[in-house]
Amino acid sequence: MGILELSTILLTLASIFSLINIRILKLPQTIGLMILALCLSVVTTILGAIFPNFLNSVIEITKKFDFSELLVNVMLPFLLFAGAMSVNVHELLKDRLTILLLASFGVLFSTFAVGSGVFWIINQPFFGLSQMGLSYIDCLLFGALIAPTDPIAVLAMIKKMNLSTVTETRIAGESLFNDGIGVVVFLTLLAIKQDGVENVTAAAVASLFVTEVIGGIALGSLMGYFGLKLLKYIENEHTELEVLITISMVLILPIISHYFHFSAVLGVVMMGLFLNQNLDVDKKEDGVQKAMGDYVYKFWHLLDETLNAILFILIGLEIIVVFESFQFQFITVSILVIILVVLSRGVGVSIPIAILSIFKKFERKTALIITWGGLRGGLSVALALNLPDSIGEGKGLILFITYIVVLFTILVQGLTLKKIVK
């Protein structure tokens, strides 16, 4: 199947699923699409039992389809840029220390807490999974890929929660930045695994981490600054040109980042925040003059919704492949890991909030809302698929647990988040 046929199928399914959700299910877009994507995988499996060749064809196409490459290098920059465009930049700048501390400490704590917990669980004789040969560094890789929340899912949910502007900005900002930090931690651990723990020094790890983070933020800020000047020069007169400029910048930044080993994820977020700034005060009723015309914001909102719909359809199809390596004890382990992930997320955000509450004001139960609002999504799945085959049988276990955690956070946490907020 060629790229044109595949794109047509995905866009058609995205349109149909969105329509079904809006008219029939009437659920938040993220949850509705996830449920429909699961239904798609179930229907495909049932049809596969009747027509084996059909299921084999679907599995073959899905395996050939590089989901990880598509999401990390193509879809994720566009989705994160669109997410950064929807954040209130002025509120975010006021609370930047809180957001950065929540994102960095939360991801690092969760990575090591979940990784250590999973390593202990799978080595218990009761589960009989020790023969899979997962090392401690492999478990830390799982901790790193499951630690970052999905900003696309989180932003879609909190917009409907009627939260205060401060709390909404904190949740949105933390979700955007913990994605970038999570990817950096994952890539750092992956480099340690590939080079061999015995051949890696603490200085080399620190250098790699700092290069990724500082380099990504600096590149994104630099491109965002020049992009802002360019958009100011256009002065909202040619909105089509503004769209073209923003698209090309989102495409160029990951290429430059890859060449210099910077974090493209953090770079895209920073660039989006720069371009989303208000230029100067105007005498209009809203009090501000935006860097870009409303048409540009509408375009990126449309692209965000479209890519989000396609993303969850792809996740639904990937489930069929993941369940090929299913073992019954995976279920018990997955339930324990879900508890571990939620608890580690809770502790990871509660500690910074407890410290910062000495100097700043937080709404009651902010830590609980951020914890339960920590939905995982396509990024975790893409990173799990990106794990090296040298992990062996353990890769199937990590993929299965990743999917179960993603499903739990989106379906269970997502459906109950509004009640938790109330």
Molecular structure report:
With about 425 residues, this protein is mainly α. The protein has one domain (about 5-420): Na+/H+ antiporter like fold. Helix content is about 75%, strand content about 0%. A two-stranded antiparallel ribbon has the order 1-2. β1 (about 280) and β2 (about 290) form a beta hairpin. α3 crosses α13, α4 runs antiparallel to α16 and α11 runs antiparallel to α12 (about 265-275). The chain is globular, with a radius of gyration of 21 Å. Mean pLDDT is about 85; it is low at about 280-290.
List keywords for this structure.
422 residues, mainly alpha, Na+/H+ antiporter like fold, two-stranded antiparallel ribbon, 2% strand, globular
SSE layout and pairings?
Layout lengths: L2 H23 L3 H22 L1 H13 L2 H19 L3 H6 L1 H27 L13 H11 L4 H8 L6 H31 L6 H33 L4 H22 L3 H12 L2 E4 L6 E3 L3 H29 L6 H28 L9 H7 L5 H8 L8 H28 L1
Antiparallel strand pairs: 1-2
Helix pairs in contact: 1-2, 1-13, 2-3, 2-13, 2-17, 3-13, 4-11, 4-12, 4-13, 4-16, 6-7, 6-9, 6-14, 7-9, 8-9, 9-10, 9-12, 10-11, 10-12, 11-12, 11-13, 14-15, 14-17, 16-17
Quick overview of this protein structure:
With 422 residues, the protein is an all-alpha fold. It has helices spanning 3-25, 29-50, 52-64, 67-85, 89-94, 96-122, 136-146, 151-158, 165-195, 202-234, 239-260, 264-275, 294-322, 329-356, 366-372, 378-385, 394-421, and strands spanning 278-281, 288-290.
